[in-house]
Amino acid sequence: MKAPLQTKVASDRSIRWLFFVSGGCSLVYEVLWAKSLHTMVGCSLHAVALVMAAFMSGLALGSVFGGWLARRQPNGLRVYAFLEAGIGLFALLTPLVFAGLSAVYVALHGLLEPSPHLGHALRFLLCFLGLVAPAVLMGATLPVLTQYLDRARPGLGRNLGHLYGFNTLGAVLGCFGAGFFLLPTFGIAWTVRGAALANLLVAALALLIDKAAPAPAALSGRDGLAAPPAEAKPTWRKGLLLAAFALSGFFSLGYEVLWTKAIAFFISNSAYAFSAMLTTFLFGLGLGGVLVARFADRLERPWFGFGLIQVLIGLAAAASIVIFAKFSYPDRFDNSSASPLWFKFAYSFLVMFVPTVLMGLLLPLAGRILVRSTATAGRDVGTLYALNTLGCMAGAAVAGFALIPLLGIPKSILLLCGLQALLGLVLITSAPELSRRRRYVWAGAVAGAFLAFVYVAPVQGKLYSSAGRSGMPKSQSIYYREGAASIVEVLETPDRNRYLIINGSINAAPYPESVGLRAHRLISQLPLLLHSDPRRLLLVGLGSGMTAGAALAFDGVETIDCAELSRDVAGATDYFERWNHGVARSSKLDLTFEDGRNHMLTSPGTYDVVTLESIHPKWDAGNASLYSRDFYRLCKRRLNPGGFISQWAPLNGLTFEEFRTILKTFSEEFPHSSLWFARPTGYLAATNAILLGSQRPVHVDVDRLLAAFADADLARDLKEEGVDDAIELLDGFIMAGETLRRFAGQDVPANTDDLPILEYGPVVNRYEQILAALASVRSSVRPYCRPPVSTKDSETFFAELQNRFEVSQLSIQGDLAHLRGDHNRAIASYGDALLMDPGNRDTAEEYANVQFKGNYQFMVAFDKAKSWRPEEIHRFLRIMFHRDDKDAVLWTGRQYQMAGWHDAARVHYRQALALDPENADAAASLRDL
Length: 929
Prior knowledge:
alpha/beta
């Protein structure tokens, strides 16, 4: 009898590892199918919730189906093999299924658009149809294997704990692999094919194991588990247990939604951050399942243990409120604006590890209590898992759509903790293993501990406010919302400047106008100025409203359609009325609260200009889809002949290769593309570039631009953002057409929905490298201009334009030197630029900035502050504000020359000669250099 027992144990281990691989495949599918469906139904919170609800509905049905199969099919391992094979085959078919569903969705959406509820119902139905078959098969695997193993070797707590734990730990590997390696390397299609192959391999191995292992004994309905007489039949406790386990799912997913939003605030909401959080959550669940397998069957008081664990989860989850209140990340890590990967995991573990491990204990314990016979093990486990899954669906929906908007994150967590602790108290007071006295002693102790925590819990105030955070301006919060889609805040500084903060990051600010007002307005103004007769504008993202409001000055614009994801962001727009011209109240604005991509997919309208707000491809998970080839193809279908698409192209937060990927993807779909600086000079201003795309060659109608500056309202807008004339506007041009395509090159991949490479990789700043590369290929816009024929002499205009180009090229070299810490070259480059165009306000302003920082470093590096007399320091600093003081200019040049800053010295001698052409000392010093 010894050999068969050893064979069965080996078979148990093999099955666990098969189920481990199965769990990994399931999470790969869940992540990738959700991503694929988001391109159809959008990435709004409602759309995401509907996709997950459809998937979980399939799992719940599958759990019930699996329980039914387990009772009717004696060879559970063979059934499991067919389930796995079915999952793999359906996975291979999903691209065709999703493509068909997308076509149906677009066709039916217009009919249901007047009713958002019908629209949500359509999305759910289509997602359910696309996912139901594989999800049902996935949901059926756990009850089928549980029944099989419990027949082969009774011990439900051990078997269920190992199966659940190994499957969930496999899901950890699948989540980690999909988010950090498979998706960014191979893309969605090939990753799904690989997972399907793994499912088919699991099926084949399961059949081989089944063939080699002894057949499980056919047991009667009461074999394997001897139930106490008092518990042999269903009682009111069974109903309580089922309800409690469903509520456990409700609490678990509610916590996950709340924790995900809260943690993302501190570690960013990038794709890597989401993968790190989900991996951590699953790891705790899986570890809990493996741990409980060791003692579940020997536990003498399972009902009491089940209730106590509910209480402990509530208390451990409540501790997360303290963590969020007391621990946040430093403002910067290694000169990066994003937290490193290790910190994302560390913070996620700090918040979620203990409560998720406790959550992982619940299913095996509930199964141990509920299952009274081996013959019904699969059915009972299927029922438990189905109810838990339905509870998960409800918890995610209630937390995201109701609790966060009504209570905010901290109070929502505390509410769930209180309800779960109360559930635990009900279970403890119902425990049959305890005397009545002990039940109430435990209940009183737990209630007292929780009430004490509630009394001191830090849940009041604006816990996630950015006011006072390191790296943020000194300010006060004047608008704050913890919404379903994002945490939105408006900060106001003492000088009345305002900042729009979304999920802890600055999204918009009017000042300094070179990086705020100017960048946001030109995203819409530039294509509207270059278009011959713009009438309809589509804006993706409302933000502060400055981009939308900039279009109001164009009298010909009749309609501004805007798709905004968050109502809370729209609420913040009113706080920027001074700069957005009250666009929220304009009759021209038609605001739709919808994911922009989904609006583009389903909207029947066409537009003269399509504009995308300043949405960075890496700040939030999903943003990269607005920089994908597939999205640009949608945009082309919405553009009228001669229309433009305008998109922010950030130079910060990207590698050089990623920036080129943006240009390559865009220019492949819009062959007549051009790239512009919002403002070419200023080491911060030049971080903002604008991509313009059209199906027609780039032509700049100079007469139209000159007429725009003659229009009082439009000229006032342009001058307020620092664009004084048409030449300054045109000087933002970088390159176009074939030059742009050559710069992008063929050695970088395009960003697509299938391979969203922009969404992955570390968030690093390679701004200096990108700016240097752009400066080396930047050319004048002159070849693309139609000469003015009526209002200005053509030769004079283009001579001024060429001079401005040369000035800004020198200024960019000054910016690059400043970024490299070469203050000598920075002062020299800006000084030369100012000599070429003494009246240039921008150049003078930036020259003063580099002088101030350079002079400070000069005094520190050469210890001048200790050796100079006060009047000498005053003379040295005076030229930043009095450039016409020829004696100070000459004296400063000599100081630079003695210290070895020859480039800076040379430009100061030239400035002295410009002020006094007869200055012999300046001429002699210049000759000496």
